[in-house]
Specification:
alpha+beta, Beta-lactamase, 8-stranded antiparallel beta sheet, 10 strands, disordered C terminus
């Protein structure tokens, strides 16, 4: 079994002071592997990169929401006002309110938004937790089917059985590990190749299928999937037809309507390396856009000024000075 390799390095004042290990797989137009580095067939927990596939399972069970609310169900949101309003709309449509959310009380995912709510005197709450959209969608799906809403996080609940079935079908990989995600929902394992395959299937799906409906919602409402200031929404806005979703512990996946796809994991879970490596992987796969050049070099500061970069170590044709 392959091991994770160096996929990013931190350069300060011309000196490489740190390196991030990880694994990346890229699929070509026809779904074959274009290239890979690291342990792309090892079992991983894709964390919130699972959410678009979880939403497919919910749609197959009869969930019916406006596209912006579907994007929110697939999100790890920043708790911006439009996110919170959307979660309340999902719950209200099911005859529920935010007291039904079992997500742990939390502050917003991003520092700038957390600072805003703290200044406004708002306390941590289940609604502010970045997975509240997903849980609102799960609760609404239970209401549609007359399923128990108190036990829906049990892996044996009909909702989770349906989600697991959809997930295994889309990834083409059997679930080896069932964990508990940070929000309390079941978390199903896969491989990076499986996750890339699933995103590719979403990106290529017909418009009237659950998979195609999820892809369309992600494309149309990128800010609902993440936040107005996030690297994910930058990619979705800049790259026509893209779908993407990041997750905790350095997970990220993206796919395009021409069949190309990428999935990655940063081995140490460090958030700073994830967007850098994704941008580098997309460039190596042949995509070009100024946003990729911007994201592929995250500044390293010294005294408040840029003195280096975090950069990907993926592009065979690129030689970086050290």
């Amino acid at each position: 079994m392959s091991e994770p390799v160096v996929v990013a390095e931190v350069v300060r004042s011309g000196f490489v002071e740190s390196r991030h290990h990880g694994s990346v797989v890229a699929l070509d137009h026809d779904g074959s592997e274009a290239w890979s580095v690291g342990a792309v067939e090892s079992t991983i927990l894709p964390r919130s990169s699972n959410k678009p596939m979880q939403l497919v399972g919910m749609l197959r069970c009869g969930l019916d929401l406006a596209p912006e609310l579907l994007a929110l169900v697939a999100s790890s949101h920043s708790a911006e006002p439009f996110h919170l309003d959307g979660v309340r709309r999902i719950l209200a449509g099911a005859g529920l309110d935010e007291t039904a959310l079992p997500t742990p009380a939390a502050y917003p995912l991003e520092d700038w938004r957390r600072d805003e709510v703290v200044r406004d005197g708002v306390r941590a709450s289940p609604l502010l937790m970045n997975c509240s959209g997903k849980h609102a969608g799960m609760l609404a799906t239970c209401v549609v089917n007359g399923w128990d809403t108190a036990t829906y996080r049990d892996p044996e609940h009909p909702l989770q059985v349906a989600i697991r079935t959809a997930f295994e079908e889309l990834t083409g990989v059997g679930v080896d590990v069932v964990g508990v995600d940070g929000c309390g929902a079941p978390l199903f394992s896969s491989t990076l190749t499986g996750v890339a395959r699933a995103f590719r299937r979403l990106a290529l799906a017909g418009p009237d299928t659950p998979e195609g409906i999820v892809a369309a919602a992600v494309r149309e409402f990128p800010e609902h999937v993440s936040g107005s200031r996030r690297d994910e929404s930058q990619l979705l806005r800049a790259l026509p037809g893209a779908i993407c979703k990041a997750g905790a512990e350095g997970c990220h996946a993206a796919a395009f309507p021409d069949g190309r796809a990428v999935a990655l994991k940063i081995d140490d879970g460090e958030r700073r390396a994830r967007p850098v490596v994704m941008a580098g992987a997309l460039r190596r796969l042949g995509l070009e856009h100024p946003v990729l050049d911007e994201l592929a070099e995250s500044p390293v500061l010294g005294g408040g000024d840029p003195v280096g970069v975090v950069r990907p170590v993926l592009e065979e044709s690129t030689s970086f000075p050290t």
